[in-house]
Automatic annotation (TrEMBL), chain A:
It comes from Paractinoplanes tereljensis. Its EC number is 2.7.13.3. It is found in: Cell membrane. The chain crosses the membrane at residues 6-26, 38-59, 65-83, 95-115, 121-142, 154-179, 185-203. The keyword Membrane applies. PROSITE patterns: HIS_KIN. One of its GO terms (cellular component) is plasma membrane. This is histidine kinase. One of its GO terms (molecular function) is histidine phosphotransfer kinase activity. Keywords: ATP-binding, Cell membrane, Kinase, Membrane, Nucleotide-binding, Phosphoprotein, Transferase, Transmembrane, Transmembrane helix, Two-component regulatory system. Its main location: membrane. SUPFAM superfamilies: ATPase domain of HSP90 chaperone/DNA topoisomerase II/histidine kinase, GAF domain-like, Homodimeric domain of signal transducing histidine kinase. It is an enzyme of class 2 (transferase).
TrEMBL record, chain B:
The keyword Thylakoid does not apply. Gene3D superfamilies: 3.40.50.2300. The modification 4-aspartylphosphate is found at D58. Coiled coil: none annotated. It comes from the Bacteria. The keyword Phosphoprotein applies. This is Response regulator. Keywords: Phosphoprotein.
Length: 630, 128
């Protein structure tokens, strides 16, 4: 009974391998895929071996000796053929490949030469050689399985286990031949297990595939949803990385169509590459239609140009990735080796790209919202700051106006209570001077404030016209001469003929401000230097003094309103508006003002204004309307 | 006779205050002697050197804000019996400026610009 039972098991195993072989052969003939050829070859020896066994049983127990020898020779090739298959899927050290090949030759050759029956030593050597080779093959497949995920990993692992089981089965066949039928029965069970393993690995039933895929899909979706992606780009990047991990590809590129129809890389996971700009949509579309692995270097020059030469990968799989509602993206998988079982997961994984697309969309909306919020709060901040600046300006202004008014009201009040002499009052002359000085100061302050307000409101009307800078400055210096004399300041000038395009009144205001500052902040006995020059399209006017100077930390503040810096004792003289106004007036001319200064050495304020480039100033006769103005 | 310390860095204002006080109708004010200081440190020296009854304190001083001196006085710069009355005299007249002056320990304040009569009245209030 037991023998009958184990024979049935053997028959079942034999049938399984026959199905596997025929299925693989059919696949190969259909598609002429060399990888499928390798798979077919793996199942060939077992099928031959078992086929011969069945034939032997049908023929009544005996076959010619050479049939047995030929069958065994073919069977011994099985481990090597499995290693060859593994070599298509992954890098296999050449030494391992050669070693297994040598083992095969080393076993097959004596088998062909020596007479039957085999000695037990020969049988043992053959079994050991076969089993060890099978262990190598199984290990290679298992190693590959570990680099994969999902259905791929499961199927490759099962294939590795089936290979190992097959090796163990051969050991039991040998043991059975030496020690009895029980062990033979075990070998038959192992044969069936191995066959079933291969069946699950290479021809999983639909529900098994679905189970594998569901697990992969769940895994991918879970990871996508949990990924802490802050932007659409990050979502796609996460998707690309998951794809790379799930498929075991060397590199994964996600391409999305741009408005012009060309596909552009949205995400890339893999070894660093130079930035991919675009891939011709036509090439991609062709590849997507083909729908199966293609050799990167054959017929896809655009891809090679962008990826191949850098990746050095041989195979690219292009998958269509429909993103709801109507975008057609693509996923490119780059592999150095061929992949078994790619069909199962790939389409599903690519379809999951649609989910990534929806996530990316959501992220884009959230992104836009965040940006809007940031912008809003930034403008609220800016408005608040502007409002505070305005309030501070008003408070400052109030303070600045009250100070001269205090002298005016105070001294005039005193005058009122002096004893009248008829219709006159005798008052100290200095009181009158104080009132006058304060009044002038107040007027200057109000004018500056008005000018600033005009500029702020964009209502400063400039009438730029060709202006002889040297002449204008000389006039100013003449007017200010008494001040220089009073403070005993030397004036140096370097004023060649230079013509700028500037508003005459505002130019005088600018330079007068700078000169007044120079006078104010320079000790008696010092000097002030005024220089003008033209460089390119610009006219430069520099006012240098040997005054107190401005510390580097204070320099950025001197152009702000009411920001008098340095020794407060000296601040009294100014309104705190002069430089702020000067800067704005210069800028209104499309010019710039710069400051170089060192404490105790002096300050140089340099303004640049557009040069009058229309005509040289030395030919006034040819300048029709503007002649009289400069 | 009382002594007033005028802490004010602007000469124009010092001249004005002295002129107003010396012409005051209130005798206590007219006869008060006025010493001046143009900085916080000079003011401290004056306070330590002589008994001062009233300080007229400007805010924007070369070596800091006048309120610093008010705070020091409130914190016991001088023995309690010698602590003068402090009047802040300032052109900063916003509510927060006033609050700051009170918080610093000023007893009174006078807004710039002031009429001569206001100055005299304020000083008289604290000297009599």
């Amino acid at each position: 009974m037991r023998i009958d039972w184990s024979v049935l098991v053997l028959l079942a195993a034999e049938l399984t391998f026959a199905v596997l072989f025929l299925r693989a052969l059919g696949g190969y003939l259909l598609r002429r895929d060399s990888l499928q050829g390798n798979v077919t070859l793996v199942f060939l020896p077992c099928t031959v071996f078992f086929g011969v066994d069945i034939t032997r049983r049908l023929a009544g127990g005996t076959l010619p000796m050479w049939v047995g020898i030929a069958t065994t020779t073919v069977l011994l090739a099985q481990p090597y053929l499995t290693v060859r298959l593994a070599a298509r899927l992954r890098a296999v050290p050449q030494i391992l490949d050669r070693l297994v090949l040598m083992a095969y030759i080393g076993l097959a050759f004596p088998l062909l030469m020596t007479a039957r029956p085999l000695t037990s030593g020969g049988l043992t050597a053959m079994t050991l050689g076969f089993s060890l080779s099978e262990v190598v093959a199984a290990a290679l497949l298992w190693g590959k399985a570990r680099t994969r995920a999902g259905a791929n990993q499961a199927r490759l692992t099962i294939a590795a286990a089936a290979t190992l089981t097959f090796g163990v089965m051969i050991v039991f066949v040998a043991l059975g031949a030496l020690h009895g039928p029980q062990l033979t029965a075990v070998s038959r069970v192992l044969a069936l297990l191995s066959g079933l393993g291969y069946l699950v690995a290479f021809m999983p039933s639909r529900w098994l595939r679905r189970m594998f895929s569901t697990s992969a899909a769940w895994h991918v979706t879970e990871r996508l949803l949990r990924a802490d992606a802050q932007s659409p780009a990050e979502v796609w990047q996460t998707y690309a990385e998951i794809m790379r991990e799930q498929t075991g590809a060397e590199a994964v590129a996600v391409l999305m169509p741009r408005p012009d129809g060309q596909l552009a890389q949205t995400a890339y996971a893999g070894p660093p590459l130079p930035e991919l700009t675009q891939v011709d949509a036509a090439d991609i579309t062709a590849l997507v239609r083909a729908g199966r692995p293609a050799r990167l270097r054959e017929g896809t020059p655009a891809l090679v140009a962008h990826y191949g030469d850098h990746l050095g990968d041989d195979y690219v799989t292009v998958l269509a990735m429909p993103v709801p509602p109507d975008v057609d993206g693509a996923v490119l998988l780059f592999n150095r080796h061929r992949t078994l079982f790619h069909d199962d997961d790939l389409r599903l994984l690519a379809a999951l790209g649609g989910q990534a697309g929806i996530l990316a969309e959501r992220q884009a909306v959230a992104d836009a919202q965040r940006r809007l919020t940031t912008e809003l709060s930034a403008s609220v901040d800016a408005l608040t700051a502007a409002n505070q600046a305005k309030s501070a300006f008003l408070a400052n202004m109030s303070h600045e106006l009250r100070t001269p008014l205090n002298a005016i009201i105070g001294f005039s009040d005193l005058m009122r209570v002096e004893e009248p002499e008829g219709d006159r009052r005798r008052v100290p002359a200095e009181w009158v001077d104080h009132i006058h000085t304060s009044g002038r100061h107040l007027l200057g302050l109000i004018n500056d404030i008005l000018d600033l307000a005009k500029i702020e409101a964009g209502r400063l009307d400039l009438s730029p016209a060709p202006l002889r800078v040297d002449t204008a400055i000389t006039e100013l210096l003449t007017g200010l001469a008494p001040l220089f004399t009073t403070k005993n300041l030397t004036v140096h000038t370097d004023l060649p003929e230079v013509t700028a395009l500037a508003d005459r009144v505002r130019f005088r205001q600018i330079v007068e401000n700078l000169l007044s500052n120079a006078i104010k902040f320079t000790e008696p006995g010092g000097s002030v230097t005024v220089a003008a020059k033209k460089r390119g399209e610009q006219v430069y006017v520099a006012v240098a003094d040997t005054g107190v100077g401005i510390s580097e930390s204070d320099q950025p503040r001197v152009f702000e309103e009411f920001q008098q810096v340095g020794d407060p004792e000296r601040q009294r003289a100014g309104t705190g508006l002069g430089l702020a106004l000067t800067k704005r007036l210069v800028e209104a001319h499309d010019g710039e003002i710069t400051l170089e200064s060192e404490i105790g050495v002096g300050s140089v304020f340099t303004i640049s204004l557009p040069a009058d480039t229309v005509l040289p100033a030395s030919h006034p006769a040819t300048r029709a309307p503007a002649t009289g103005r400069s | 006779m009382s002594t007033i310390l005028l802490v004010e860095d602007e000469e124009l204002n010092r001249t004005l205050v002295k002129a107003v006080l010396s012409r005051a109708g209130v005798e206590a004010v007219r006869t008060a002697s006025v010493v001046d200081a143009t900085s916080l440190s000079a003011a401290r020296d004056r306070l330590r050197a002589a008994d001062i009854d009233l300080v007229l304190l400007d805010m924007n001083l070369p070596d800091g804000n006048g309120l610093n001196l008010a705070r020091e006085l409130a914190a016991g710069l001088l023995p309690a019996d010698k602590r003068p009355t402090v009047v802040a005299v300032t052109a900063s007249v916003l509510p927060q400026d006033r609050a700051a002056a009170i918080e610093a320990g000023c007893d009174d304040f006078l807004d710039k610009p002031y009429a001569a009569a206001d100055l005299v009245a304020t000083v008289a209030r604290h000297l009599t």
